[in-house]
Every structure is written in structure tokens, then in C-alpha cells.
């Protein structure tokens, strides 16, 4: 029997994720659920979405800080849910959870954002190295070659994207792509946002049924530049109070093709073979470079 709509069919539990909160959290019509694998453009997308929701283009973290990561496992989830429930504006809910772990309703909007899987790997490496805590260090505990092999070879577990592997990234992608025919499921790519941020801001607005002025769109494009975002995080955090040793480093370098000069031809070949084992050629091209629309 073919399902007519997605259902939340499993839980993911890991160092960063506990999806059981979805059982008691009620979505509202018009809610935007933003789900991405880690280091794929999550905060960047949050900022754009919240500026559109508030119809304000300002370089101020406060405008997008209330987009809560609902199923975060290292925060008080009841407080996160209560903060979202208290919001009287349109909500944007952050998650890194695959689609089968999220509540579905046809009245909400689901946005999934992806990035080249090897760029994701090197951003993860730098992200974990920048953390003040060590609870994710086991992902990068070996030599650089062994760490990359682990990223390629390990399978998906009940931790979901907390696995921080190519398989968990592809599982997240496939969980959404299986339902791409639904009108409220939308796909964005980090590379497209870098190539033409204005076009992608307009896509976000259209998906939410908004018709902002050209002036507001231009202002949001400027306010969501990589330099502006990095400065906002740097000014909003003190290193001694942050999860990160260098808060501005949360945004890394914002570049693509991070593997140049760091991976051998053998490693790149192993990556391509592993990726092709998990997803088809068309999906592989899109996952690496974007450009295909919904």
C-alpha cells in the first residue's frame, strides 16, 4: 500500500538530537519547518526566512534567534517548545532530523537545504575543532585519512544526522526526496544560495506566499551576506560564554570545494563510488551542485 502522506515513523536519539518532542508539539498552519544536515546552510537559511517573516532586513541576531531548534538534545526541549508556542508571529522551526522523524501536516511548509557532501565533511571537521566541549570529538579522533574513511564508510544508525556521515546525509536527503511531489516540500542548495542569493531569497518568499517589495528583497540579500552573518555572530557572542572557542568561526569560510589539495585522487574516487551506491546519478549531481528546482 502506498502512503498518501508522510508519517512520523521513527525516533532519532543522539548527542545533539532527540526527536520525541515531535509527539507533543503541535504545528500551526503556515509554520515553516527547516530541516538540514548539519553544516549545510541551516543558520543562513534561518536568517533569511526570519527576515522575510518579520519583514525586516537588519544585521541583528535577535531577528532570527527565535527560530528554535525544537529537537535539540542538549537544551531543555520543554523550554524550546514553550518559546515557540508563545510566538504570535509565523514560526520557523529548525531541525536536523530526516523527514520520517518529523511531524507532517499539509498546512505547514517544509524546507530542506543541502550542500556538497565533501564540503560538509570539512566544515564539520572545523566546526567540531572549534567547540569548547568535546562531546563530538570522537568523530575526528583518528588520522585525517581514517576520519574521512569513517565519514564515507559508516552506515546510518538511530542517531540520524548525529552520525555525521555521508550515509546519514544521504538518508536525510532521500527521506525528503521521496516526497518531493508534495506541494509543501521544497529543496534549496548552498551553492545556489552562493551563486544567486537574490533569486533564492525570492524563492523563499514565494514558497511562503509573501510578496515583499524589491527594496526589502535587496536589503535582505545584503543583510544575509556571508560577511554580515559572520559579524553578527561575532558581536553577539563572547568566547567565554559560547559553545565555540571562536564564535565567528561558526560560519567557517563560506567556501565550496574545500577538498582541493586535501584529498587524494583515491579518496575522491572512493567518495564518488560510495555516493553512487546510495543515490542515483541525477540526485548525485544535484546534491553536489544544486541548480535543479523543486
Provide a descriptive summary of the structure in words.
It is a single chain. The chain has helices at residues 42-54, 62-65, 77-86, 117-129, 144-153, 166-177, 190-195, 197-207, 214-223, 226-236, 265-278, 281-289, and strands at 32-35, 92-95, 109-114, 185-189. It is α/β, with parallel strands linked by helices and 294 residues long. It is built from 12 helices and 4 strands. Residues 238-242 and 244-251 have low confidence and may be disordered. It is globular and about 50 Å long. A 4-stranded parallel sheet has the order 2-1-3-4, with helices on both faces.
Task: Produce the secondary structure layout.
Layout: E1 32-35, H1 42-54, H2 62-65, H3 77-86, E2 92-95, E3 109-114, H4 117-129, H5 144-153, H6 166-177, E4 185-189, H7 190-195, H8 197-207, H9 214-223, H10 226-236, H11 265-278, H12 281-289
Helix pairs in contact: 5-11, 8-9
* Secondary structure tally, helices: 12
Q: Any idea what the shape is?
A: globular
Q: What is the spatial order of strands in the main beta sheet?
A: 2-1-3-4
- Please tally the β strands and state the result: 4
In short:
The chain is of the alpha/beta class. It has helices at residues 42-54, 62-65, 77-86, 117-129, 144-153, 166-177, 190-195, 197-207, 214-223, 226-236, 265-278, 281-289, and strands at 32-35, 92-95, 109-114, 185-189.
Amino acid at each position: 500500500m502506498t502512503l498518501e502522506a508522510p508519517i512520523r515513523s521513527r525516533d532519532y536519539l543522539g548527542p545533539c538530537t532527540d526527536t520525541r518532542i515531535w509527539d507533543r508539539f503541535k504545528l500551526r498552519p503556515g509554520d515553516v519547518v527547516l530541516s538540514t544536515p548539519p553544516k549545510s546552510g541551516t543558520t543562513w537559511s534561518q536568517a533569511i526566512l526570519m527576515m522575510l517573516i518579520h519583514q525586516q532586513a537588519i544585521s541583528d541576531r535577535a531577528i532570527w534567534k527565535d527560530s528554535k531548534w525544537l529537537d535539540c538534545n542538549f537544551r531543555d526541549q520543554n523550554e524550546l517548545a514553550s518559546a515557540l508556542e508563545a510566538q504570535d508571529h509565523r514560526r520557523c522551526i529548525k531541525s536536523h532530523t530526516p523527514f520520517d522523524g518529523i511531524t507532517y501536516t499539509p498546512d505547514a511548509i517544509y524546507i530542506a537545504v543541502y550542500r556538497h557532501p565533501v564540503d560538509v565533511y570539512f566544515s564539520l571537521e572545523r566546526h567540531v575543532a572549534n567547540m569548547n566541549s568535546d562531546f563530538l570529538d570522537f568523530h575526528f579522533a583518528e588520522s585525517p585519512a581514517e576520519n574521512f574513511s569513517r565519514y564515507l564508510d559508516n552506515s546510518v544508525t538511530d542517531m540520524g544526522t548525529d552520525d555525521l556521515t555521508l550515509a546519514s546525509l544521504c538518508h536525510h536527503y532521500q527521506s525528503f526526496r521521496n516526497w518531493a511531489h508534495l506541494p509543501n516540500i521544497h529543496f534549496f542548495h548552498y551553492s545556489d544560495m552562493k551563486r544567486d542569493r537574490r533569486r533564492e531569497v525570492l524563492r523563499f518568499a514565494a514558497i511562503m506566499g509573501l510578496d515583499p517589495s524589491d527594496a526589502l528583497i535587496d536589503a535582505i540579500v545584503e543583510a544575509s551576506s556571508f560577511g554580515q552573518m559572520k559579524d553578527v555572530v561575532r558581536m553577539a557572542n563572547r568566547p567565554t560564554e559560547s559553545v565555540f572557542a571562536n564564535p565567528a568561526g561558526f560560519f567557517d569560510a563560506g567556501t565550496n570545494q574545500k577538498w582541493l589539495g586535501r584529498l587524494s585522487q583515491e579518496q575522491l574516487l572512493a567518495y564518488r563510488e560510495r555516493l553512487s551506491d546510495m543515490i542515483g546519478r541525477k540526485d548525485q549531481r544535484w546534491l553536489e551542485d544544486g541548480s535543479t528546482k523543486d
